[in-house]
Task: inverse folding
């Protein structure tokens, strides 16, 4: 029997073996990506309340109690001044909303989430392009983002069907657990059963009140809707007020049947030839390529074909090493020219410089919306990968939707080093 | 760690972030390598962790805990890499075996091989706690804080990892002793 000390000594000495320096190429590769990667917006801004003198602190307490007694809620962002600035002036939000600064005359109708909301002229809406996954956090492309020009506030709005076998309350409980990790005591919004009701359009939802963010939820027609309000800075003067947020919520109209249904991708297809894997759903069938892809014609037998049952859609995936001396952009331009020659006018996806961007696994790819297909391309490790959603018919038969296709692409992993140069018949 | 640099990087200063990365990258990589036991996977984990840290830096609440926060991101990147490695069943990488740094006896090599094999069979979350505790020398409370898990969970992960490795270690020791008696 070995004693604890000799085991620990052996374990430590074994762990000491191995490299001690980080490889430069990994750091360089990361910085190449960082150069084009924006930082995420901080939705949870001032966890730290500004230092307040005792009288101000007392006023905060009184304001909080008064607000609660009035049936309102305490809006802590409004209580906080600029970090490092003068003591915050405690001003509890009244439960009756004051006149909004904004004239909500325009309307934003979500493409994927099944709702509309009034917005002011000049506000910028960035629609979601993939279904909302709670792991996607608060940022596009999984949520609609509305930037309220003239303030530092934004809304992140998303919805999804209540997961099978789950309830709205269970979802709220899980969401709550995910959002409170690491937040200070007293800032977690409390148990979901204690959240205050709030009017969202014609429905009554609940309000999760964090110290520096406010999230409203509603269950409408079997979908969970989430409206998250966050601020860019610590300056409360720059935020919208809670009353204005509530006024916005009142303008919502719901259309749950038009919301996108995310795919459930529990399986994985690992390409035997091309150095990638992709998530697949239950019952999906896969046919690996039997000949290595060269040139631009990405049809079988040169591509891996993935079919979703109950649809006429096929996801085809081809990959090849970029020819020596050819840039990715040049390859894409040539691919576009070769493959769009015989498509109807207006169906060629336009010039590649106008294509949208979408996450393909950890990479950012470009995608072209064709009339009955979608192409998504990305370069990884000196190889070009082309993912194509194609439908056999124009109408009638159900297709995989573009958002569902783009959702599938988020599950991709790459390992171009293991792609094979040729495929044995 | 320079707090001003962290604050600057939080506000989007890439050069400040580069300086910070320079300070922590060796530690991050060596930890990833010890958890994943594969240079390629460790490199990928490091690369992903660097990009993710840059993206998420504005969410960092306590600049003084930058290094711990970065290690948490790294450990999660290791979880992801480990998951991906499992998906690549058709393309298993050849795992290099590190040679000894100093000459030693066959028993020590056998110990290491046995530890290596047993360690690779551990769930990655147990490996992470084991490495953070025995390689970085962090106390369990700090590991729990770093990984945002309850201290009891950290303790149980270390316990199960230790039990498995210890059992493998003892089996090898007994087998060597047995061979010695038979010789």
Result:
């Amino acid at each position: 029997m070995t004693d604890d000390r000799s085991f620990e000594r052996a374990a430590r000495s074994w762990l000491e073996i191995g490299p001690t320096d980080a490889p430069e190429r990994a750091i360089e590769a990361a910085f190449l990506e960082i150069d084009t990667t924006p930082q995420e917006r901080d939705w949870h801004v001032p966890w730290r309340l500004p230092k307040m003198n005792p009288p101000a602190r007392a006023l905060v307490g009184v304001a909080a109690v008064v607000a609660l007694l009035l049936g309102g809620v305490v809006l802590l962002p409004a209580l906080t001044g600029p970090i490092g600035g003068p003591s915050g002036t405690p001003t509890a939000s009244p439960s009756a909303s004051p006149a909004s600064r904004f004239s909500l005359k325009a309307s934003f109708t979500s493409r994927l989430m099944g709702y509309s909301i009034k917005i002011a002229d000049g506000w910028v809406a960035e629609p979601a392009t993939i279904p909302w996954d709670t792991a996607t956090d608060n940022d596009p492309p999984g949520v609609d983002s509305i930037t309220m020009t003239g303030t530092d506030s934004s809304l992140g709005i998303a919805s999804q069907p209540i997961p099978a076998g789950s309830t709205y309350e269970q979802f709220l409980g899980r969401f709550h657990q995910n959002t409170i990790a690491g937040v200070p005591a007293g800032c977690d919004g409390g148990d979901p059963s204690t959240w205050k009701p709030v009017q969202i359009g014609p429905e009554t939802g609940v309000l999760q009140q964090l110290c520096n963010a406010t999230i409203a939820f509603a269950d409408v027609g079997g979908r969970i809707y989430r409206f998250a309000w966050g601020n860019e800075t610590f300056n409360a003067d720059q935020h919208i007020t809670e009353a204005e947020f509530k006024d916005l919520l009142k303008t919502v109209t719901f259309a749950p049947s038009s919301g996108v249904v995310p795919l459930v991708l529990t399986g994985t297809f690992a390409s035997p030839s091309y150095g990638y894997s992709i998530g697949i759903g239950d019952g999906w069938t896969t046919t690996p390529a039997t000949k290595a892809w060269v040139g631009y014609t990405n049809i079988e037998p040169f591509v891996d074909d993935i079919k979703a049952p109950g649809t006429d859609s096929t996801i085809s995936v081809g990959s090849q090493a970029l020819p020596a001396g050819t840039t990715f952009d040049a390859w894409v331009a040539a691919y576009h020219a070769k493959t769009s020659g015989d498509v109807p006018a207006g169906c060629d996806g336009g010039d590649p410089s106008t294509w949208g961007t979408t996450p393909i696994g950890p990479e950012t790819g470009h995608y072209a919306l064709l009339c009955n297909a979608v192409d998504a391309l990305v370069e990884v490790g000196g190889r070009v990968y082309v993912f194509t959603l194609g439908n056999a018919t124009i109408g009638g038969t159900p297709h995989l939707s573009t958002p569902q296709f783009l959702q599938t692409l988020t599950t991709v992993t790459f390992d171009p080093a293991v792609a094979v140069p040729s495929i044995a018949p | 760690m320079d707090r001003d640099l962290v604050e600057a990087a939080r506000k989007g200063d890439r050069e400040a972030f580069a300086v910070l990365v320079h300070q922590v990258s060796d530690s991050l990589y060596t930890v990833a390598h010890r958890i994943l036991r594969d240079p390629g996977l460790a490199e990928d984990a490091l690369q992903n962790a660097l990009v993710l840290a840059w993206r998420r830096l504005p969410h960092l609440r306590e600049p003084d805990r930058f290094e711990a926060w970065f290690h948490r991101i790294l450990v999660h990147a290791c979880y992801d890499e480990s998951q991906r490695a499992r998906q690549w069943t058709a393309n298993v990488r050849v795992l290099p075996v590190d040679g000894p740094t100093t000459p030693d006896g066959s028993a020590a090599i056998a110990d290491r091989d046995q530890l290596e094999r047993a360690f690779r069979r551990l769930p990655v979350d147990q490996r992470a706690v084991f490495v953070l505790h025995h390689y970085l020398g962090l106390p369990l409370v700090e590991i729990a804080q770093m990984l945002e898990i309850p201290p009891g969970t950290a303790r149980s992960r270390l316990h199960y990892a230790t039990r498995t490795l210890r059992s493998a270690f003892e089996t090898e020791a007994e087998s060597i002793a047995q061979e010695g008696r038979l010789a």
About this structure: Residues 43-98 of chain A have pLDDT under 50 and may be disordered.
